């Protein structure tokens, strides 16, 4: 008997009589709006930036990262920084990216996270390997909590999806919080 | 009200004044108290050490002593919890089952059954209240700080009825004192350190007395206070509620 | 002392307690995390306790249908393009991982945090096979450089002080001597590990949740090390215990709300990465490991321990863990949960762990999936006795105690004699052989017991 069969048989023998899955989905009444999203994001070390009518993403990037040498995006609307060769590029070569700009599907007010999938990212390692991460999310795309977030995701197809909440961080040395463990040292969410 | 009094074995032998205070307090509050003299122990010392299997005779004796009482009162949350969770009898299971429901820890009995709202007691000292684990997390005598739930404390409510008492605040409201039965000897180092830390929280906040609804925690902390030659003393809650 | 001559929890804890200042520091650090957890729980108000209940029920259901969910997961994961492996025990798990490396002819890999691989001692195994494994979680890298194991499942080097880490990095990573600033040290590790991420072609990660419905799995980190490893490697191997399954994707809403809040007080980990299909051109392997879990599933009293989502909240709240350190548990998973998981793997080796607790119950209250940890500790004590893993001397002492306590006459005589002896010759108990007396005074023996007083003062009155 293979290990697979042995394990399945042992589990079947050991598992108790079927217990029901909770009938109704958990309903949260924790409220959430753009303000709460921004507040939460700031509290976990991220930054939020409310885009106004006149200001374009490119101007804001230039203002926020005046010294950035390599700024990339695979979002066609980010014209100047568009990474044309994304399909053929060796992902490791992104290690000197100063700023990566990504488009997020939506944000979650209760924890300051944004949801992105491979469809927007094109390159999975993009939001991790860059020095600074910028995510763009529409103000009307803020959901209050994680239950709403998964209702929204549903059974969508993707190869990879990720909730990103703030910059990469660690507190492994005496619980002192340090931003930029392996990934971005900062994360800015542009809300438009 | 007729009450059967259960005095834990170590209280009986080492802290008779706690038994006396409990008895007098219940009498003052109008109870007719009966103490079955053939009683010994709830069996917890063996059971918590992994020898619940050796507690059968203890259980039979306990059941024999306390069968028929509509209310059994004991000044120890830990012993009461043990009875509630583990008392069984081969000879008379209906009696054991009934005892499991009719046994009360003292402050729970005063608060929930007698519904005491006023006490004629005086204790003009600064007192730190130690919330013993089995009383709190087992019997819900007070709210557990781990839970997102409204705070309450039956022992504290009673202490606040005592004239002149000043209850001090603690940094850690319901941290274990480290007694833990045989844990206190088999894990001596951690047990003693936990006790020292608990005592320090009370001392730093100016307690003159440390009180609790469980004498075992107090015995442990008393041992540490005495070794430190501290002026701070321990008093079982029954002694304070019966004082003055 | 354990059977193989290694030290047991009490002995290791005693050693840890020889440096009291360090114990105080360890205790305070972990208590601070407990307080952060409390704050995060309260931030959800009335939703926190129902959420724990919901999580617990989802896990109960999953465990009761685990064999079906495992097959559903396998089918969907394969359809997603993953290769699914099954390992009956630690040895087979290690062999599977090694065979994947061998096929690629790889000797160097990166690994993000996985308590399962710690449980299986994968690093030791691969080292024997000549494979160089680099742990990429900062805390794990620190203990790896120090040739130690993690002392906490979420905070692997919580027992290390920054001065010591500075010294370690100076020796191994060439940081300037005497530099102890956490930002500087973290950046030193970042530079050191960035090079590893860019050059290693195989990455191992753990798994926090696997979803039967979709055949995907979720990995949660704050550092982003799992993603850096997995997305840059040609081959990604994810190792998981079979209890990590949950039925549906939407169940993640419940678990991701609880996990980080319970672990560190964060509303969510920085990254919650959902791996569903291999990257184009990449291989994605998943190893499903039993290693005693199907046995634990069959132990009714201990089944619920398999609900554990490895948040570490029970460690942080445990007054014994905080004052004895993770290594005193001599097991990959320390703390209260480790003490109920370990005896399932080896009763003889871990017979001391269920006794490393006062049964205060705080662990059960912080557990996000409501495992009755302290009740299981009590139950393990009974099982260890029944199975004959307790010393004969303890049995004799307990038997004598039980005999005395079951006969009132014996009890009264013994009590009286004891108190007399303590009064007349305090040295009989107050001596170096009595562990109680080491740091505590014995109670002052009174002249009479409560029973004696009662008989004098009330019984007679009642009889009149």
UniProtKB/TrEMBL annotation, chain A:
<protein>
    <submittedName>
        <fullName>LUD domain-containing protein</fullName>
    </submittedName>
</protein>
<feature type="domain" description="LUD">
    <location>
        <begin position="92"/>
        <end position="191"/>
    </location>
</feature>
<dbReference type="Pfam" id="PF02589">
    <property type="entry name" value="LUD_dom"/>
</dbReference>
<dbReference type="InterPro" id="IPR024185">
    <property type="entry name" value="FTHF_cligase-like_sf"/>
</dbReference>
<dbReference type="InterPro" id="IPR003741">
    <property type="entry name" value="LUD_dom"/>
</dbReference>
<dbReference type="InterPro" id="IPR037171">
    <property type="entry name" value="NagB/RpiA_transferase-like"/>
</dbReference>
UniProtKB/TrEMBL annotation, chain B:
<dbReference type="Pfam" id="PF02754">
    <property type="entry name" value="CCG"/>
</dbReference>
<feature type="domain" description="Cysteine-rich">
    <location>
        <begin position="3"/>
        <end position="84"/>
    </location>
</feature>
<dbReference type="InterPro" id="IPR004017">
    <property type="entry name" value="Cys_rich_dom"/>
</dbReference>
<protein>
    <submittedName>
        <fullName>(Fe-S)-binding protein</fullName>
    </submittedName>
</protein>
<feature type="domain" description="Cysteine-rich">
    <location>
        <begin position="127"/>
        <end position="221"/>
    </location>
</feature>
TrEMBL record, chain C:
<dbReference type="InterPro" id="IPR009051">
    <property type="entry name" value="Helical_ferredxn"/>
</dbReference>
<keyword id="KW-0813">Transport</keyword>
<keyword id="KW-0411">Iron-sulfur</keyword>
<dbReference type="InterPro" id="IPR004452">
    <property type="entry name" value="LutB/LldF"/>
</dbReference>
<keyword id="KW-0677">Repeat</keyword>
<keyword id="KW-0004">4Fe-4S</keyword>
<dbReference type="InterPro" id="IPR024569">
    <property type="entry name" value="LutB_C"/>
</dbReference>
<keyword id="KW-0249">Electron transport</keyword>
<feature type="domain" description="4Fe-4S ferredoxin-type">
    <location>
        <begin position="298"/>
        <end position="328"/>
    </location>
</feature>
<dbReference type="InterPro" id="IPR017900">
    <property type="entry name" value="4Fe4S_Fe_S_CS"/>
</dbReference>
<keyword id="KW-0408">Iron</keyword>
<dbReference type="InterPro" id="IPR003741">
    <property type="entry name" value="LUD_dom"/>
</dbReference>
<feature type="region of interest" description="Disordered">
    <location>
        <begin position="440"/>
        <end position="464"/>
    </location>
</feature>
<dbReference type="Pfam" id="PF02589">
    <property type="entry name" value="LUD_dom"/>
</dbReference>
<dbReference type="InterPro" id="IPR037171">
    <property type="entry name" value="NagB/RpiA_transferase-like"/>
</dbReference>
